[in-house]
Amino acid sequence: MNKRVCVLGAGLVAGPLVRYLLDRPEIDLVLADQDPNKARELISGHPRGRWIQLDIEDGPGLTELISGVDLVVSLLPFSLHLMVAEKCLDQGRDLITASYVKPEMQALDHDFRKKGLIFLNEMGVDPGLDHMAAMRVIDRVKAGGGEISDFFSYCGGLPSLASNNVPLGYKFSWSPSGVMLAAKNDGRYLSGGRTVEVPAEELFQHYWFQEVPGAGVFEAYVNRDALPYKEIYSIPEARGIYRGTLRNIGHCESWDLFRKLGLLEFEPTFDPHLTSPRQVLARLAGSDGQDLTRDLSRFLGVPKHSVTLKKLEWLGFFRDEPLRLTKGTPFDLFSRLLLDRLGYQPGETDMIVQHHEFIARWPEGERKRMTSTLVQEGEAGGESAMSRTVGLPAAIGARLVLEGRIGAKGVTRPVIPEIYEPVLEELEGLGIAFQESVVAEDEEA
User: Fold this and answer.
1) What is the mean pLDDT of residues 300-324?
2) pLDDT tens digits for range 92-106
3) What confidence tier does 442 reach under pLDDT thresholds 50, 70, 90?
4) What pLDDT was estimated at residue 48?
5) Buried b (16+ CB within 10 A) or exposed e, 46-71
6) What's residue 292's pLDDT?
7) Using 50, 70 and 90 to split pLDDT, how confident is the model at 443?
8) Which residues of 391-414 are buried (b: 16+ CB within 10 A; e: fewer)?
9) Does this chain's domain 1-125+386-431 share its CATH topology with 129-252+346-382?
10) Alpha-carbon distance 243 to 152, whole Å?
11) What pLDDT score was predicted for residue 440?
């Protein structure tokens, strides 16, 4: 009898996952989404697939769906995973997500273990592949008697060089709100044994240039709190540990000014149906609107020819026509304009860049710098790099769970060999491979 899988969410990263699972003759799949057209298109009449329209807030409908399958894969926003997890617990079903383990998720660990279930999280690209590639190197160093003294991890989802045709150097392969919310996070990392705190209001002021082999030079700024990874990766001896986001040059300065201007604020301040972007911008800058460029220049403390002011104009903030938003907040206006101007057009491609750097030491004094790098481009007219690097790890993880090849139970990340080894091996066969290098420190240029 075939195994039954339910996938919740038919969004931008669902395609590769759905196609991978439907290619397995031993798997039947049901795809649920509140938009029936997206779900129907992905299933595309496959004999072992079916789609249903489902509002995730429909408790009885969600319970009925989960009760009829062996495994649930949630591609929903992270804020909805807790509801799904509780339903999986009630029905005795395993669950996979590509999202970070939040404290409320970790709190379910005992209950999942007690029922002999796995709640496998962080099975995407970041978080996900970053863990797997890092742990493959870390475990290899430990097996050879060494230890990790420093670990730096960088990741970015960006337009490919050929499709980097917008002044912001960035495009959205998912909802802009996720990127905007991440811009409001505090950051923390370890450098030389010292904890460095980066408050959210200084996030984009605290960056440096980072070269990635085969991809170029980027800006890197801190991605959340890196300190828990000393425990997650079992490297308590590390005196340096950093997780950073990669963006194209010029990103951090502009986003720091966007934040200063108040474009990330949630407080309703205008009529969403009657107020134009220009009026909102003038209000934020304390301008009467007569010379908006001059007033923005003064408010932000930048020249009138500043590239950030030109970016605001290009985005549509100088428009006089209202956009008829749902909410009258700067956050929603900014999100709408970003989505309108920074979406991928047909034939354009994205790029995933992931880069790890390690300093490894051995008791006899040997010291090496090691790297692990992934540069993955999407296919013109086909699957995006983001969808493949998020969807395929989750899909492979689902197959491993269904085949009983993962013994771990409870709330789990892909930081153990029984998960990361088969996933990385299969991904290499699918063209998603990390390139590793090792250089003795005394050999460095």
Assistant:
1) 97
2) 999 999 999 999 999
3) low
4) 98
5) bebbebeebebeeeeebeebbeebbb
6) 96
7) very low
8) bbbbbbbbbbbbeeebebbbbbbb
9) no
10) 6
11) 79
pLDDT value of residue 12: 87
For the segment 52-56, the average pLDDT, to the nearest whole number, is: 94
Which of these, 393, 378, 351, lies nearest to 128 by C-alpha position?
Answer: 393
Cα(76)–Cα(355) distance, rounded to whole angstroms? 27
pTM: 0.93
Looking at residue 445, what is its pLDDT?
37
pLDDT in tens, 20-35: 999 999 999 999 999 9
Is 334 in contact with 263 (CB distance < 8 Å)? yes
Task: Give the model's pLDDT for residue 176.
Answer: 83
Looking at domain 1-125+386-431, its CATH class is alpha beta
Span 294-311, pLDDT tens digits:
999 999 999 999 999 999
Could you identify the residue written with the tokens 């005394």?
A: 442
What was the pLDDT predicted at 202? 97
Q: SS3 letters for the chain? A: CCEEEEEECCCCCHHHHHHHHHCCCCEEEEEEECCHHHHHHHHCCCCCEEEEECCCCCHHHHHHHHHCCCEEEECCCHHHHHHHHHHHHHHCCEEEECCCCCHHHHCCHHHHHHCCCEEECCCEECCEHHHHHHHHHHHHHHHCCCEEEEEEEEEEEEECHHHCCCCCCCCECCCHHHHHHHCCCCEEEEECCEEEEECHHHHHHCEEEEEECCCEEEEEEECCECCCHHHHCCCCCCCEEEEEEEECCCHHHHHHHHHHHCCCCCCCCCCCCCCCHHHHHHHHHCCCCCCHHHHHHHHHCCCCCCHHHHHHHHHCCCCCCCCCCCCCCHHHHHHHHHHHHCECCCCCCEEEEEEEEEEEECCCCCEEEEEEEEEEECCCCCCCHHHHHHHHHHHHHHHHHHCCCCCCCEEECCCCHHHHHHHHHHHHHCCCCCEEEEEEHHHCC
Domain ranges of the chain: 1-125+386-431, 129-252+346-382, 254-341
Q: Which CATH class is domain 129-252+346-382?
A: alpha beta
